[in-house]
Every structure is written in structure tokens, then in C-alpha cells.
């Protein structure tokens, strides 16, 4: 699918109590015009170059949007309370209005293509930011990839399986990620997490999630005889890989929790950003597992 990157276009600008918002078109792909909302601290100095939270919403690759209240509140929080640039993006909802959805009747090939294109959309958004780092006052070496549910799958595959999904290795040579914030996500194959690409990672997952596996299991727990049978590696397998490479992680386990753990943990955000301050900014290696009961 041909991608046309658009020259920077500011669509909306308005002031909030402690941050400003601008909306940009970062790509046009077929009938999809993909936008991002960029929240900047209101008191930003001209000399500042700030870390970024680049957020990808959930919705089963078929619904929701970048401006959903929870997603917007998260990136606003990043700008207002943490002195980050907070960014929430659109991406192609390739399973929207599909009769087979994204469950066990959606074929493995369709699922893999959906994962691939979501990862590519995310990488295109990151590339857009990196190429305009000076104007947007971002530090391109300090981008945290974040997402929930389908968005978490998209960002995890973009960060850790770029070499698998991307054919043109030079296309995103300027893009790197300094951290990961995943709420109920999984990768296609955690063996693609290596010492070279492992970064400080915050993981939230429920042990009884029946949509996105907590450990190694089939997506949606589909029967092997179903078209949509595909094995995924969830947060537990990801954390094990990071531990093996002495990479910082904070693994938040909810015993008995289901896919509702994909929600953004607003009550923990101060701790989440403190973790990134310690690990991404101060280079500490912290490995913790926090176990809660639903």
C-alpha cells in the first residue's frame, strides 16, 4: 500500500490550562487520513527538548479513536504533570466493519497483516515526529512507545518486531524507542526481543485475559482448528525476555484479571513516569513484579 507523507499541516490549536494541543496529518494511506494530537507543556522553554509519550489507542483494530477521553487524558497528563510531549495517534482500523472481526473467524494471515500494518502506521508516526524534532521540541532519543489492547499489540510489534514486519530496513533508521508502556499487549514472537532492542518496559496484564494472552497462548484462545488460531507471547513472556537481558521492567500482574486490565492505570501514572525517570533518563536497572488480586 503506497504511503504519502504530508508536509506538516497544523489543523487545530488551542490553549488548555497547562498545555497546548496541535493536530497534524502524519500520513495518508488510501482512504485513511491519519492524524496525531500533540500536547505540549504550556510553559515549555525555547531551549527545551522533551521526552515523548507516543500513544496508540485500543479497540480491536476496528474501533475507538485517538481522541477517546481516556487516551486524551493520558497524553494531556504527560504534558501537564510530567513535562513530556504527549502524542495520541490515529492508525488504520483494518478490521472495522469486517464480518469476521478480529477473533477466531479472522484468518491467521489477516491477523498477521493487521499486526504488520498497525506496526508500520506506528513507525510512520514516530518517524514524522523524529523528522520534526526541532520544531516540536522533542528529544528523538527519548520516545516512549505506549498503547492499550490492540494499541499495545501495535506498539510492541513496532518496537520489538520491526525487523520481522518491515522489509525496507532503511525506512525507519532514524526511529528508536527508549521505553515501552503496554496495557494488556502481546507480540507475535518474543524471541525477537534481543539485548540490542530491549528497552525499559512497563507491563500491565490480567492472568485470566481471554483475548490477549497473559503468557504464551493462542490469540483469543482460539481452538487450533479455527482459522484465527495464532500463538502470541504476552506480558509474562516479554518480562522473562527482558530479565534475561538485564533490562529494566515493571510488570504489574493482576491475578484473576481479564482484559479490563487494558484500561489506562491512571491511579499508577505517577509511578509509571517515575520508573521511566529512573530507567530511561537515569539509566538504572530496576526489575519488579507487582502482584495484585482482582
What CATH first level would be assigned?
Alpha Beta
Instruction: Please count the beta strands (DSSP E, at least 2 residues each).
Output: 13
Second-tier CATH architecture: 3-Layer(aba) Sandwich
The CATH superfamily name is Alpha/Beta hydrolase fold, catalytic domain
**Poorly predicted spans:** 1-16
| Largest sheet strand order | 1-2-3-5-4-6-7-9-12-13
Describe the structure.
By secondary structure, this protein is of the alpha/beta class. The chain has a single domain (42-293), classed as Alpha/Beta hydrolase fold, catalytic domain (Rossmann fold, 3-Layer(aba) Sandwich). It has helices spanning 69-82, 108-131, 133-136, 150-160, 162-165, 235-244, 269-281, and strands at 10-15, 19-29, 32-41, 50-56, 85-89, 138-148, 179-183, 186-187, 201-206, 216-218, 231-234, 249-255, 287-293. It is globular.
How would you sum up this structure in a few lines?
The protein has 294 residues and is an alpha/beta fold. The chain has seven helices and 13 strands. GO terms for molecular function: hydrolase activity.
Q: Topology of this protein?
A:
Elements: E1 10-15, E2 19-29, E3 32-41, E4 50-56, H1 69-82, E5 85-89, H2 108-131, H3 133-136, E6 138-148, H4 150-160, H5 162-165, E7 179-183, E8 186-187, E9 201-206, E10 216-218, E11 231-234, H6 235-244, E12 249-255, H7 269-281, E13 287-293
Parallel strand pairs: 4-5, 4-6, 6-7, 7-9, 9-12, 12-13
Antiparallel strand pairs: 1-2, 2-3, 3-5, 8-11, 10-11
Amino acid at each position: 500500500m503506497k504511503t504519502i507523507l504530508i508536509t506538516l499541516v497544523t489543523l487545530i490549536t488551542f490553549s488548555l490550562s497547562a498545555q497546548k494541543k496541535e493536530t497534524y496529518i502524519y500520513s495518508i494511506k488510501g482512504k485513511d487520513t491519519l492524524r496525531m494530537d500533540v500536547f505540549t507543556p504550556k510553559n515549555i522553554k525555547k531551549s527545551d527538548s522533551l521526552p515523548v509519550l507516543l500513544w496508540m489507542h485500543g479497540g480491536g483494530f476496528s474501533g475507538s479513536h485517538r481522541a477517546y477521553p481516556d487516551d486524551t487524558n493520558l497524553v494531556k497528563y504527560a504534558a501537564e504533570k510530567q513535562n513530556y510531549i504527549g502524542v495520541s495517534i490515529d492508525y488504520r482500523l483494518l478490521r472495522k466493519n469486517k464480518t469476521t472481526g478480529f477473533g477466531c473467524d479472522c484468518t491467521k494471515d489477516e491477523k498477521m497483516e493487521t499486526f504488520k500494518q498497525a506496526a508500520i502506521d506506528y513507525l510512520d508516526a514516530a518517524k514524522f515526529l523524529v523528522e520534526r524534532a526541532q520544531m516540536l521540541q522533542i528529544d528523538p532519543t527519548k520516545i516512549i512507545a505506549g498503547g492499550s489492547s490492540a494499541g499495545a499489540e501495535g506498539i510492541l510489534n513496532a518496537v520489538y518486531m520491526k525487523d520481522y514486519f518491515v522489509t525496507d530496513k532503511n525506512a525507519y533508521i532514524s526511529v528508536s524507542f527508549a521505553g515501552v508502556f503496554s496495557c494488556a499487549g502481546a507480540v507475535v514472537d518474543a524471541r525477537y526481543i534481543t539485548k540490542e532492542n530491549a528497552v525499559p518496559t512497563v507491563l500491565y496484564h490480567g492472568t485470566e485475559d481471554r483475548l490477549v494472552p497473559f503468557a504464551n497462548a493462542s490469540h483469543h484462545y482460539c481452538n487450533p482448528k479455527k482459522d484465527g488460531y495464532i500463538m502470541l507471547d504476552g506480558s509474562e513472556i516479554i518480562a522473562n525476555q527482558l530479565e534475561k537481558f538485564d533490562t529494566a521492567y515493571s510488570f504489574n500482574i493482576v491475578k484473576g484479571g481479564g482484559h479490563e486490565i487494558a484500561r489506562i492505570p491512571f491511579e499508577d501514572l505517577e509511578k509509571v513516569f517515575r520508573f521511566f525517570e529512573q530507567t530511561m533518563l537515569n539509566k538504572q536497572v530496576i526489575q519488579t513484579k507487582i502482584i495484585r488480586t482482582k
